Structure formats: structure tokens, C-alpha cells
Amino acid sequence: MRPERYNAREAEQKWQKIWAERGTFTTRNDDPRPHYYVLEMFPYPSGRIHMGHVRNYAMGDVVARYKRARGFNVLHPMGWDAFGLPAENAAMQSKLHPAKWTYANIDTMRAQLQSMGLSLDWSREVATCDVSYYKHQQKLFLDFLAAGLVARKKSKVNWDPVDQTVLANEQVIDGRGWRSGAVVEQRDLTQWFFKITDYAEDLLNALDTLDRWPEKVRLMQHNWIGKSEGLLVRFAVDRASVPKGVEAADEYEIYTTRPDTLFGAKFMAVAPDHPLAAAAAARDQKLAAFIEECKRIGTSIAAIETAEKKGYDTGIKVVHPFDPNWRLPVYVANFVLMEYGTGAIFGCPAHDQRDLDFVNAYVLGVTPVVCPPDADPATFTVTDKAYDGDGRMINSRFLDGMTPKEAFDEVARRLAAQMLHGRPQGKRQVNYKLRDWGISRQRYWGCPIPIIHCEACGAVPVPEKDLPVELPADVSFDAPGNPLDRHPTWKHVACPSCGRPARRETDTMDTFVDSSWYFARFTDPKNERAPTTPAIVNRWMPVDLYIGGVEHAILHLLYSRFFVRAMRRCGHIGMDEPFAGMFTQGMVVHETYRTRNGEWIAPADVKIESGPEGRKAFLIDGGAPIEIGPIEKMSKSKRNTVDPDDIIQTYGADTARWFMLSDSPPDRDVIWSEAGVQGAGRQAQRLWRLACEIERIVGGARPAMPAAFSEKALEIRRAAHGALARVEDDIEKLRFNVCIAAIYELGNALAAAVGAIDATPVADDLRFAFAEAGDILVQLFAPMMPHLAEECWEVLGHDGLVSEAPWPVCDRELIVTDTITIPVQVNGRKCADLTIERDADEEAVKAAALALDAVRRRIDNKPVKKVIVVPQRIVNVVV
RNA sequence: GCGGACGUGGCGAAACCGGUAGACGCAAGGGACUUAAAAUCCCUCGGCCUUUCGGCUGUGCGGGUUCGACUCCCGCCGUCCGCACCA
């Protein structure tokens, strides 16, 4: 009987229904078994899922299903990161209310995710835009406020004067607002901040404990926190140099990490928004214009630092701390950041590239003060490449001959003892690049900040009994500005403290706040009284494995780490770190296609023909030739996206999942290709046929385990248990592509064994081996292609579900063989294989290797100098 | 600009702690089955040389360490990602 083709669409719906009815993936908090929490970053409900989601969730699902089979009580929830800008943009464009838009998207995307057959506990679903979620977030805000973790201060924003709104950095294009095209201004706004810098040292130190995080993510966070040890140095102003009418202070403080290079100083520079810049600009129109120009670059550090180094000489001079006769000019420079240090620096061009570029543009001269070990102090010069290495101090008076480290300490010591205006002129200072987390957003679609502003009482927290502060539903998006701010009634309330008329805070929270604690909420999402239930959250957390894109490696993960610490301080959770294990997966990329006149064409509209001369693309409609462009991240603008729905309709979810996991290592980008999906689809059919054929050979009742096995049966068992051992190891290490290769190999081995059977009544030992190997094969691919696996499991005669079956036990004795084959090299080049007993001693291996014909030929009677034997690995003969 | 990664056949890749480079898959070519197609199965498949046996060469480029280097070290080149209001 020929097995029929596997019908993915029918089978997938059938098994999804069965899983749902049986509650196979519903997780109980009171289950006593060891627990495992696997979580993928929840999606923003943008409208439809994309291939990046498919990849992300397929990976998490493999781990969830595998751990479940291994006897763990697995928590694998899903929710929606549902607040954010796109909903408001949609509201402006299509007059659809953000809530309507968002919930409609959630419904669509939930259905899409469900069609993927993910083993998720949907009963724990949360959406951050739901009052039932954000009311707890407001409580957390109030608790943080009470714990002293919230601050109110000014910060700079990109202001679009036409749209009357704050713009995200990505919305500022060449200094103009993306929608209005108006020149963007920088404005100071008083905003709410979480004091993440209070935890800077702890967040840095604790990185060492996160040994199941990718090294690169820890490094990125390390650099982001950016701890530096330096010196605060106060420079006296040369009063004579201050122009009339300029209200300069008597001194200005700079921060430097290289006080050792103080004798190489050529200038002082301050940020465009430094008080000194403002003071000097009051009497200097050109300077005022320069400062304006700097502000137009925007607030993003990338833009500021990429811009050409420019400065403006204020004319003011400061006095060198170690020489009262030495004057340094003070510049306003576009590369000095007000947010870092004191917003002022001294510039030493010889040993800092930025300073050197600057000095070369303004002809201030360069004096090297650190001489590299291999250079001659008399001739060493710096022209266009700053030297930032170690060496000995030169041209530095009392520092000469010291190492930079010694010089640093000496300068720190002297300046601490030297008085300026009655205080020590220098002070050691630990500095962090990390800034406090500004959470205020002048937007509607976010979690309202539960504060009431009262003229008499100031900023008053909303009393807990008045929570939640709910977003008003009746808002309009047809006017510029924040809809909450211009709502006729919402913001007008009585002050909770004095009862007089007051107004609500109309800023909402950054959406990063929403995603900084959802993982904790999932452990008891229905708790109406509190954000978490400590006994429950402390059992589940930290998350054992968290999977998401590298793009979140810094901000989201750092904010979450801070948030959990803050929640701990307020008694909501009992640990510091949210994620014990972390994995960052790569992107899904695709070829791009363009017509002759440069129009982007979607893959679905392209037909590819490949032959010996390579691949050619044509438009399906009309057959016009299409140019195949570079492979890039899937994006709407280049139209190189593939809709998961289409793929699932055509090939089935299993095929899509399998392909997402197969070709590329999970942390690298994967190229989506039609041919690749087809290959995955063929493999699904191949596995289905194989299961049917194995069942035909085993035939009904399974034989008991026989006492002895024929060599043929042993080979099958070895293949199965060998694959089992590899797959276990690979899934634990998330090496899904290698894991799939092992499954292919087992499939190929079993197909060959099936093909070698000629007579149908088969001996019991072989029948046992086939039945066992068939079961193992199906269980191995069940985490990746769960629907097909259920179908095969049924064919193989099992009553229950493979999703509920315990993982097979690997018989490691089967994998270890008595004899092994190792390579033999002569002068590091392989020339023969040697098959020998596994435990043969070194002398025996050496003798056997030298006795091989191919080895003797290669040695060719030359004297053997040395023979290296690495046990069970390799033999190398050196002649 | 700063920070982080990556680079191996026609393509995606594998190679565990420095020990057989190219497992597994895709594409391609050849063959079997078929009236034909699809599906399926078998064979070949880094490059150069050789009738065969086999030999040489080869992991972005240039050096180095080592009996032995995709792997370690130094210096380049190229590509991608993040940079604080996108999520």
C-alpha cells in the first residue's frame, strides 16, 4: 500500500484543536515538578506577524516542548507590547481609535500565532494597553516614587514646531520632522525619570553573574554603563579675557579620564548647551548662531558624533592648573556632550583622536606627552593619529619619566592639595555614561503617569485608592499636540492633598516601562490586587531562557534588570536579575527584487528560474525580467517580505518552523528562500513516508525487547540512540541547525535500512529496532514539527499524544564502540585512517600507524623525528 | 564618531578544548521509473593536475606561534547591527 501524502493543513488544524481541548499546554502554578520558564520577547501588535516572529517563537517552542518532554513544568506564555506610536499614527491616518486598531491587530496576530501550533499557555495572555495590566504599572510607579527611585528633571527633546509634538530620533531626518518637514528644535522639558543610575555599579557588577547570557550582550551593557575613573578639575577663568557684558563665572569644572596628559592641553571646550556657552553667546551673535546650528543636529549621540568636529572660540581664556602664566582658549564644541561629566573638557590632541581632529582644524598645535615604549622622546611627534597607548611621560615637567598611571595619581594628589577659591582644585570622580531613564512621553497611547499637579502642593501622587488612572476613550487626533492635554475634562481634577482644582499629568510612560515587568506578570496574570504574587513569582523567576533580537540587547534588557531591582526594593519580587538565560537570535533576510525602472517587487510576484548559468528572475504577471538585488533585512519599504500566513497556507506551519530552524545558526541571520522552504516541505513528506513504512515493517503489535540483536538491528539502534544523544545536546545548546542535521542523518539511515528489507516477515529483533528507532525519530523532530509528529505518532500505533509523551531514554552504551577509526598524518597532512581498539595504548597505536602502507610510502625511508599520539584523536608522524 | 559582531564550495553551513576542512541541506549536472509530467529513488558535485593509484592547493588579505591553525597572537580589508523618544 502506498502511503498517501501528508496533508499539513488538515492535520495542523486537527491537532491544534486537540491540544486546545485537552489543555495540553496550560501550566498550573501548583504543579510540584521542577519548573522551567521559557519566554520569547512579546510582539508589538503592528498588524500581522512577520517571519522574525516565526523564527523567534519557533525557537522558544522547541525548548518549551523539549523541556516539557523531559518532565519539567514549563511556563511558556504570550502577550502583547501594545502601547506605542504606530497606533497613534494609524489613528491620524485612518481615523481609527488606537484601542480599536490595537485590539483588532491583536486578534489577527493571535490567530496567526495559533496557526503556528506553538505550545503556549494562552490563558495567561496579557496586553500592556489593558487597564488590568497598566493599573499595576501605575502602582509600581507610585511605589518607586515612594522608594526614592523617581526624579523630576529637565532634559532635551526634539520639538517639531508645526506638529507641536516631541519627535523620536528616528523621526528626525536631516534635522527636519518626518511628517511636517519643519526644522526641528531642541527644547528643555521637565520630565519624569527612573533613577537607574542609582544602580549603575550594581548593574555593572552583576553582569559577571549572568553566565548564561551571550558574551557580546554583557559586553555591550558593560560599555553602555560606561564606568570611568577620572578627575574633576576646576580651571580658573582669566578675568581679563572675558568680554564686557559676559557673565562668566570665576571658574569652570571639567571632567577628564586623562589628567596625566594635562601638560599636553591645548584648549578647553564646553558643550553648546553649557552655561558658559550661553553666557558668551549673549554678546556674540555668531556664537549664538553656532549654538543654534549645533542644536539642529538633534539629540541623538550618533548624529552629534558623526558630524564634522566644529568649534567656536569664545575668546575667554582659562588658567592652566599647574602654571599661572599658561592660558588655554575656551571653545564651544559640537562634540562635547552636556549629559556626560560636567559638559566641559580640556583637549589634549596628542592622545585623543577627537581632540586631534579638532585641533588640526583650528591650528592649535600638538605636544605629545606620552612617548610609546619603542619611540625616541626627542623625535616623537603626533600629526594625524592620536596615540592612546602606554609609555613614559615627556614634556610634562614634574611628571616626566612616569607611566601615565603614575602621572594620573600624581596629578590627582597635587590637585587635591592645591586650593582654588578656597577648595581643592581637583577631585577623583567615578563617572558613568549611563543616564537616568526618562520615561515621560507626550503621547496618548501609553500608560498614564499617576500624578496630579497642584499649584499649592506641587506634584502629588494619585492615591492608590484612585487607581487606575484610566485613559479617556473620547479623544481626537485631528489637531497637533497631545490629545490628553487638550481633552476637555480629563486632566481637571481636585488635588488629593488640598482639594483645590489641579490638573493631571498628561504625559504617559515610555513603552519600555510596559515591557520591563511583563515577564513577572505572566506568573500570575489574573491577580487583580497586586502586580505580582510574591510566592508565585519567586518560584518561577528568573526566566530560565529569554529569546529575542539583538536590537534589544541594551535598552530593554538593562531597563528590565533595573526594574526587577526596583520591584525587589518595593517587595514585589525576591530577586535582582530577571533573566538567568538569554539568547539573541538573528534576523530573517531576503533577496530584493527591482524592475528595470527601479520599482521594488515583492517576492510573491516574482518567478525564479535557475539553470547552470545561474538564477534569473521574472515578473509572474507578464514575464518581464527582474533584477535580483542584495539580500537585506525584510522590510516593507523594499517589499522583500514574505507573509507567514501565505507560507502556512501553502506548506503548513511545521514546514515554516522547520525551515526557520534548519539552515542557519540561530544567532545569525537566516536567508528566507522559496527553494529552502520547498526542501523543508519535502523533508516533512519524507518523514511521513518513513513513519508509514516503519509501521508496515513493525506491523501491529510491538515485540518485546529481545535478549540479543543481529548486527543489522544493532546498527539501527546505534543510529537512533546516537542521534538522540546529539539532539539532546544540541537543543540544550540551542544549536537547532546542527540538531536538524542529526535528524536528517537518522532519517537517511532509517530510509536506507527500510530499503534494505526485502522479505516482509521480519525477525523480532529487527522489528523491535525499527519500532524503537521510529519512535525516537518522531520524538526528535516533535519539538520542531509538532503536528507532523502527532500524525506519525498515531501511525506508529500510539494512543496518547507525542506532545505529552516523556522523552526517550538514551542508551549510551550503544553509542560507544569497541574500535575507533582515527586519522594518521605525516608532517601534519592526513594520509591514512587507522582502525584500532578504543583503549589501545600509545605504543600500540604508534606501531600500528607506522605499519600502514600509505604512511610508510609517505615517510619514504626518511628518519622519523617524532610521533605525536593524541589518544582517540589523531596520530602525527614528523619526519 | 563610539561600541558590538561577522567573513569557510555556486549557496546556507558543520568542524566539541589547537587534531581528518566542507557533516547536513539547497542549487546544479547525469541516470532510473513514467506515454508524458509531477512525485520518488540512485550517482556526481571546492579548485588544479592525473587514464587509474594518487598528488598539489584551499577557510577575506598579510605576517607570526605550533609536530599540527577555520580555531591562538599581531596588522589590514570588507559587510552588518546598536547608540538612550521605533519597538
Describe the fold and architecture.
- With 879 residues, this protein is an alpha+beta fold.
- It contains 27 helices and 38 strands.
- The strands form eleven sheets. Strands 10, 11, 12, 13, 14, 15 and 20 form a seven-stranded mixed β-sheet that branches.
- Helix 3 crosses helix 4 (98-115) and helix 20 packs across helix 22.
- The chain is globular.
- The protein starts with 7 loop residues before the first helix and ends with a strand.
- The structure holds one RNA strand of 87 nucleotides.
Strand tally, please?
A: 38
Measured distance between first and last alpha carbons: 62 Å
Q: What's the main sheet like?
A: 7 strands, mixed
Backbone CA Rg: 34 Å
Oligomer: single chain
Compact description:
With 879 residues, the chain is of the alpha+beta class.
